[in-house]
Amino acid sequence: MKKTLIAHSPDADDIFMYYAIKFGWVDMKDTKFDNIAEDIQTLNEKALRGEYEIVAISFALYPHIKEDYAPLRTAVSFGEGYGPKVIKKKGVKLKRNFKVALSGEHTTNAMLFRIAYPDSRVTYMNFLEIEQAVLDGNVDAGVLIHESILTYDNNLEVEKEMWDIWQELAGKELPLPLGGMAISRSIPLNKAIEYEATLTKAVQVARDHKSKLSQMLLERDLVRIDAATLDKYLELYANDESITLSQLQYKAIDKLFEIGYKHGFYDSLVKVEDFMIPAEYKEIRNS
């Protein structure tokens, strides 16, 4: 059997969307899946180097890897009136050139933040370290992602919602594209189509059995949050809109790429649908 590694982040939504495979609820013929969890910037950097065949990425990274990876239509996370948060200590007034901690150069939140706050002094660190860095005064502010947006310390307050920054830049009501999965173009097309179908089924099965799967993740200490927080968090980032990309989500990703191109983050304008796996290939090939 071919062994295939899925690289994803350690946050609860990625774990939830993958573990229907890990627990054997979903499988693929002649294929054995394994997984590795790494922070999102590490995954972005390894995608730039082409180290993983199937890898979770920040949407903002994709134009940099479009020649080597195709975006998958499944296991996507968007914000809908919510998202990462710019936080600071309560009562602190930020200067124009405040020092801020971001979770990685190629993350979606980092690109949007740098556009919105061009005079800030940016430092990058693991997303798990950002909250404490603000509390310790090592930075003036930080952008919280993943579960931290629900669990941050009471001594902190929100300076700005990334959702509001997105709305100001996008200029319309579009969901905020945060992260998804990409698959190496070195994989034969018919096999890549099978991988996408299997991962899509895994997210669907996870959603269909949310309560049972969540309980299993909690019992095995596979997530960092309690049951109530997990339930709320999954409805934010691993919901029914995560199963397969909608036309509205395609428009949102294209808008993100347009904004990045306009502000000099990309050297060309990318339309995400131009780089998807042609799922119809298998039907045509077998017809």
Task: Give your account of this protein's structure.
Keywords: Ligase, Lyase, Menaquinone biosynthesis. Pfam families: VitK2_biosynth (PF02621). It comes from Candidatus Sulfurimonas marisnigri. It catalyses: cyclic dehypoxanthinylfutalosinate = 1,4-dihydroxy-6-naphthoate + dihydroxyacetone. Catalyzes the conversion of cyclic dehypoxanthine futalosine (cyclic DHFL) into 1,4-dihydroxy-6-naphthoate, a step in the biosynthesis of menaquinone (MK, vitamin K2). With 287 residues, the protein is an alpha/beta fold. The chain has two domains: 187 residues, Periplasmic binding protein-like II (D-Maltodextrin-Binding Protein, domain 2), CATH 3.40.190.10; 86 residues, Periplasmic binding protein-like II (D-Maltodextrin-Binding Protein, domain 2, 3-Layer(aba) Sandwich), CATH 3.40.190.10. It is 39% helix and 20% strand. The chain is built from eleven helices and eleven strands. The strands form two sheets. Strands 1, 2, 3, 4, 5 and 11 form a six-stranded mixed beta sheet that branches. Helix 1 crosses helix 8. The protein starts with a strand and ends with a helix. The mean pLDDT is 95.
